[in-house]
Write a structure and sequence with these properties.
Shape: elongated
Order of helices and strands: EEEEHHHEHEEEEEEEEEHEEEEEEEE
CATH topology of the largest domain: Jelly Rolls
CATH class of the largest domain: Mainly Beta
CATH architecture of the largest domain: Sandwich
Oligomer: single chain
Number of domains: 2
Helix content: under 10%
Strand content: 25-35%
Distance between the termini: 48 Å
Radius of gyration: 22 Å
Length: about 400
Amino acid sequence: MYSHDDGGLNLQPSSIDKTRFKIGIGRAHRVFASIFLTFSICADGRELWRFLPCFGKEVRGIERHIVTDGSFDSRLPLQAERLLAMDSGLNEAQRRNVRWHPVSFPHREFMALMPARRVFGWYGCEFDVPRELSGMDVLADLGIIDDSDETFVNGTQIGGMGRIPEGSAWQSDRLYRISSELLKRERNYLAVHVWSLWGLGGIVGPPVLKAALAPAGAEWHLAFVKDTVTLASDLNQATPVKDALASIANDGKPLDWRKASIPWKGFAAWRDDEHYAVFKFTFELKNEDGSPKRFPRPMVMDAGPVFDVAAFYLNGWRVGLVGRFPHEEEPAFTEAAQWARFAVPPDAWSADGRNELVAVVYRERGVGGLPGMPAGSAAGEVAWDSPCLAGACGGAAHGAAGRET
């Protein structure tokens, strides 16, 4: 059960005017945990998400109704009509509330609508995929859900944690991959069935969709650097990746590369006498016909949370710096779990579609590294004050805009 005090977060919804929304293109904002080329759901509609409270009744099949009906404003799903027709013990106020409600995140209204224990509900939304991101897998980053969920796209289940009912996974972030084969260019439907024992309940949010840079099963190439190495130069000033790697490997020994999963979970493998590490991986961005993808607008590189300092290099050049590396008498400037988010200009991507991302990371102590997945969001003409941008209202982008020279 999730008890949440969100004081200080400014996550109020904006006012928009239609009921559909797009996965849009926009400025850099906080998106939870990823180094994917991600895009965020951005509104061109009055409300992005809708919620159907079912109180103490388990109502199945709503994911199919959403796809068939194609609207959250028309008649109630047949399953909900049956709920109302049953002797369910609902009072008159509850019966009136068995309908699609607009949602803003964090979803405080979940508990206001259903203050009782052991309750069910459905979330639904509709989204389009930008043309330049077609053919790419998508990540549904739903964040914390209190307590259990089953998540569907276009009627097909893509994930779930806990058990409905009576299960609990309220401490786990939901990050589900959606195969591009499940998606259409327009009018895709995401449905999330939730169960809550008590407390805040539902999608704490805000949820975000992202286009994945890393294919399923992709791995980092990872190398740790012993503290016996004396840095040859100031990493804070190293804009070409070759200078950064030369500084780290200045004892003349090649880096000892190993493979590591994306997202990285090998915190225990980072030894106390190794404060630096290098993460890198290559990825292809190609259209369905095999031609390289072209992005007419800047893309937002989202590398997720950083522990503690990191410089990011795309195709040989630095695109951003989070924190400050120690140098000479100057200590490191670290704020663990800052989000790495940088605007990447169109000419920073490889012309042949094959790209390399390198991150030089400094860990002060304890947990270190990049626990997210490489991702990005397109940047351009959208309503970036919309509530669909995960956590965006509470965080700012870090680092430089575009390639550093």
